[in-house]
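User: I'll paste a sequence; please echo it back and then give the predicted structure.

Assistant: Echoing your sequence first, then the prediction.
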Amino acid sequence: MVAVRHLIQQGYSLLESDYRVGHKDIDIVAFKDGVTVFVEVKTRSSERFGSPEEAVDDEKIGFLVSAANAYIQRKGVMGPIRFDVIAVVGTEEPFNITHFTNVINPLSVLQGGQDSAVHRRYNR
């Protein structure tokens, strides 16, 4: 997976990939600098119909946060966490990879919705 390779090249340690909790999943769980990072990966062959990160909607955010909560409880994760999105565009090497860090606030999700704030936080 190109996103895993990207993270490893950036100094992250891979903890899990395709972690499932019922019908919810976490694409990647990684670790770097004392932080457990939950990563949603979105891939598109082109940006003709929008950028990949635009597909991270409120429902997906809720599922990701719920799955991360289950992971934290099951694995006994201690310390800081964050939520990242990796957008991959292309059909072959070299892919266009954009890594958005700390783009989901789980407290907002727990308090009734992200109100699409995740989309406003992407900075290119």
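The chain has one domain: 2-118. The two ends are 23 Å apart (CA to CA).
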